[in-house]
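User: Thanks for the earlier help. One more: Signal peptidase I. Can you show the sequence and predicted structure together?

Assistant: Of course, both are below.
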Amino acid sequence: MFPEISTGDMVLMTPIYSQASAKRGDLVVIDDTLSQNKSFFKSVVNTLTGFFTFQLLRPFDLQSEDAYSIRRIVGLPGDTLYMENFVLHIKTKDSSHFLTEFELAQQNYDIEVKDLPEHWDSSLPFSGAYPETVLKEGEYFVLCDNRIITDDSRLWGAVEGDKKIYGKIILKYWPFKEFKSY
């Protein structure tokens, strides 16, 4: 999530997060382990052990560093969106025209974009463009702030909030000089 969050930064996340309160610009944790079907008992044990161990132990989840990723919500249910030059353009369900993600976001953030190689064909995938898409009810479009990294909705498609959004980042506490609440 560079430049907002770098490797080694420490953040606090709350799993008590309702998609009804999701806002454009929220930093969320995407959980690939939630695609496993778990019984109610296993879910309760996971939640409690995760809480008391600061999410270091969740016995019924796949234990992988790649199981979780932090992404920014940029598209909400009902939005029509497309990407051009790594910037998302969004038409909300009650609007008649497109605005950039920055005009609609409720908080300021920066994106990281590096130049593509000199003879790169812009028609290739992940070249800073994404076709027009309409998000269904319960779907969210999430992106990494470093737009060269494509491990986000450009690759996966829209994410189902109730199945893939595990929690919201509420605080960055390390390094202390970059302390920030979200």
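User: Great, one quick takeaway?

Assistant: The mean pLDDT is 85.
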